[in-house]
Amino acid sequence: MSDKNIIEKAADVVGNVTKFQKQSKLKAAYLERDEFKDSDMHAGYFCYNCIYWVDSMGGKCMIVNDKGPDIFGNESGVIAAHGCCNGYEPNSGKLKDPNTR
């Protein structure tokens, strides 16, 4: 997917997000594990690589509320770069090509 397609897809999402309420972390099956904090964020299903994640003020998501507990009952108050949920949509511009080292 080209950068233009990613931007267009994200713009559509932003336009549509105003029509809907954000999901709770529980409803989105959001999880955040400290074991993944130091992982390579460019090589996995992390919020960091998602088109909905915004790296501002500690990490926000366009579709998941940053308040409330995750599926493990932990409350961080942010959508962490090393978190993930069932709304994940890859931002291929941030992902490493698995065929290169």
Structure description:
- This protein is 15% helix and 8% strand.
- It has one helix at 3-17; strands at residues 31-32, 53-54, 60-61, 83-84.
- The radius of gyration is 14 Å and the shape is globular.
- It is built from one helix and four strands, in the order H-E-E-E-E.
- By secondary structure, it is largely without helices or strands.
Short structural summary:
The chain has 101 residues and is largely without helices or strands. Helix content is 15%, strand content 8%. The protein has one domain (3-84).
- Give a count of the beta strands, DSSP E runs of length 2 or more: 4
Strand content: 5-15%
Largest sheet: 2 strands, antiparallel
> What's the average pLDDT?
83
Shape: globular
Order of helices and strands: HEEEE
Low-confidence stretches: none
Strand order of the largest sheet: 1-4
Portion in helices: 10-25%
Secondary-structure topology with pairs:
Blueprint: H1 3-17, E1 31-32, E2 53-54, E3 60-61, E4 83-84
Antiparallel strand pairs: 1-4, 2-3
Main features:
101 residues; 4 strands; two-stranded antiparallel sheet; little secondary structure; two-stranded antiparallel ribbon; 1 helix
